[in-house]
Amino acid sequence: MSAKPRTLYEKIWDAHVVERRDDGTCLIYIDRHLLHEVTSPQAFEALRIAGRKLRRPDLTLAVADHNLPTTPRVDASGKRLPITDPDSKIQLAELEKNVAEFGVPYIDAIAPEQGIVHVVGPEQGYSLPGATIVCGDSHTSAHGGMGALAFGIGTSEVEHVMATQTLQLTPSKTMEIRVDGKLGEGVTPKDVVLHIIGTIGAAGGTGYVIEYTGNVFREMSIEGRLTVSNMSIEGGARAGLIAPDEVTFAYLSDKPMAPKGEAWAKAIAWWKTLPTDPGAHYDKVVVIDAADIAPCLTWGTSPEDVVPIDGVVPDPMSFADPAKQIAAQKSLDYMGLTPGTRMEDIPVENIFIGSCTNSRIEDLRAAAVVVRGRKLAPNIRQALIVPGSGLVKRQAEAEGLDRVFLDAGFEWREPGCSMCLAMNPDKVPPGERCASTSNRNFVGRQGPRSRTHLVSPAMAAAAAVTGRLADVRKLERMA
Amino acid sequence: MKPINAVEGRAIPLGLKNCDTDVIIPAHFLKVITRDGLGKNAFEAIRAQPGNVFDDPEYAGANILIGGDNFGCGSSREHAAWALNDMGIDAVIAPSFSDIFSGNAFKNGILTVVLPQEAVDRLLEVAKTQPISVELEGQTVTTPFQDRFRFEIDPFRKYCLLNGLDEVGMTLARDSAIGAFEEKMAAERPWL
Ligand code: SF4
After folding, report:
1. CA distance A273 to chain B (A)
2. Do A18 and B178 touch (CB under 8 A)?
């Protein structure tokens, strides 16, 4: 053991080095590999062509989420309904064929545990502190909320992990983002992370692994931490970690795939050694005062385009960087917005509450608090609630939240990625606007020519009942 | 993977800060189970605009793409790299790349060249009328106007690209080290 103080990231890294090359590149062992239907078929195919085996199917877990329809999946008699989109159907069939051939544990499309891969991992106790977790999906950063080193990989890397259970990696730089103080009224974990991305920029974390520190994260639930870590990639960082603590251990204690008995005691003892040592060095430190964070949302087509809800659409010329001025003008043209317009005056026609960022039970509760006793505004054409997993859906139903949403006029759907990326039939129609709890407001992300405003679940609910982007703080006072 | 060293030819002057992978290849084209044929759907939203650089006959057959800051941000979809491969792009030049995209590009034999914004601006200008030349061995980008820009690249990546090495094959050769690590882990962290 070296005496040099180390960060959480460095400790996890060091614990997974199989070999270190002279140039600093390391062969890093991967503890957990999640697969879904979109980024795995070409990797399985490559294994087959090269005659290679999947080294550790026991460390791998597959679940379909990206293009499963969110309409009912079984008929009244419990029989599985066919998928109508032919390409989606092929992709799902391909996944089922591959997991059977390579012996990968699989949560099938009608299992109660099915859901978005980044909701399922923590919820099953598959994602553990101190583990290296990868998936062919950039929002794998979410699992960092459990104190894991988790990051998205491309399909060639998926193949590399399948064949070798390792990746060849160079260490990232480290960035501490510290948020201390007391969060204001109506400020949720989503607002915290949007504020952070607005501060560091969409490329601010490129080349870094972030560690979120400070009392704001210490006091956050696991659900909230997963929301924050999830969006690390929108700030350019491949991974974003939050040190494991008693909140993490309590969350994991009853999860089916978490260690049990003697293994649990041993695991906790190791997990407790992981938090960053006092005096450890970060390559960059960003300090944010919790009091400066307002409920906020995006106005443009990059997640860095963040304003407080009581703010206005910015003037592109107000940005110092000429490249950003051009990008901002393009964003405004695409979004159909004029500088100076109050965000609260912008009407929306679509509401999406879901995605791996905000589809957990706490998110649904936060939305339900706002919706209860109210109705969708008349100009809302489509309002979807898509729970992150079958277990979240059941829990919400047990709490009666489904009734709250259905009574207000929302649709209550089956779990999946849905309108977050519009690979399945759930889309925002061209030219229409959506208040969305997802993580990307890119051009065409929610469907061709869709216009996305990223918001928290409470703010999406507020938009649903007012028919425009709305300040949840004012709404609560009105109630 | 085919070895790569010199890439010479016309370059598409895209520019565009934060060009994300949804722009490169939108999600509704990801329902494929092979790597081929994505090029024709690449940059769909940009191509819908009249007079866009991708359909400009001036750049027909270009094998270099010049992007803006944070090129390839967003999703981890390797389909973005496959789409560029399919379009015949062998090198992308930009002020910065997202980490995941540059890894994916590298694994598909696409050279990502990072140059300062001023150099990229100059190349965007030159590309309108002239070819550009990227040379990996000497780590330089040159133009017919005697511009000469040096770029940095990870030595391991450079070595793999120059020799067309397959990373999976290289790692499989380390099988005994991986096996030894697994034994150690089974003793120290049995819950994993
Ligand atoms: S919910 Fe959206 S961001 Fe999350 S994994 Fe699915 S498509 Fe990706």
Report:
1. 13
2. yes
